[in-house]
Amino acid sequence: MSTILLVDDEIEFLDLYTEVLELMDHRVLRARDGREALHLAQQRHPDLVVTDWQMPRMTGVELCQHLVQDEVLRDIPIIMHSAATDPHAPGVTAFLSKCAELSEFEEVVNQALIDSGAEAQGPPHGPRPSDLSRASRETLWQRDEACSLMQ
Predict the structure, then answer these.
(1) pLDDT (tens digit, 9 = 90+) per residue, 15-49?
(2) Helix (H, G, I), strand (E, B) or coil at 94
(3) Alpha carbon of residue 107 to chain centroid
(4) Is the model's pTM score more than 0.85?
(5) Other Cβ atoms within 10 Å of 67 Cβ, number
(6) Where is this region: Disordered (predicted)?
(7) What is the DSSP string of 36-88?
(8) What's the CATH code of the domain at 8?
(9) pLDDT digit string, tens, across residues 49-60
(10) Secondary structure (3-state) at 135
């Protein structure tokens, strides 16, 4: 079982991705901004960090800078997710749009873990929307609506 640090200032996305990662049999640490995430990473040494790009107090880019400068944390793979186009940040191993399908989210998480030497986990085809709580399905629906307007 891998430990994944999930960082997002939008509680709905934090809840949705937490549920997805838990359905994939991962332990999830949660942070609402980069500063809180850095503290958790220093204390718990997660196997993977999945962070939003734009957050208050410390952005995802600033978090990445701190992680790669830390000798103990620099090898932790980082997935950046954002509604913006592919933002670049130090140490980011993969970028994932917030508009990505859940199956793509699962794929990117599993690949980042495999590339770092950990094993992929979870059901063979990942969690389906019907596996999610009502609140997470609603967040997913709202996200899909917002993403369709951006296209």
Answers:
(1) 999 999 998 899 999 999 999 999 999 999 999 99
(2) strand
(3) 12
(4) yes
(5) 26
(6) 117-136
(7) HHHHHHHHH--SEEEEESS-SSS-HHHHHHHHHHSTTTTTS-EEEEESSS---
(8) 3.40.50.2300
(9) 999 988 888 999
(10) helix
Domain around 18 = 3-150
b/e per residue 115-144 (b: at least 16 CB within 10 A): eeebeeebeeebbeeeebeeebeebbeebe
Determine the length of the chain. 151
At 19, list the tokens: 């549920």
Spell out the residues 6+ positions from residue 31 whose beta carbon is closer than 8 angstroms to its own.
Answer: 5, 6, 7, 37, 39, 40
User: 2: which 2 tokens?
Assistant: 């891998």
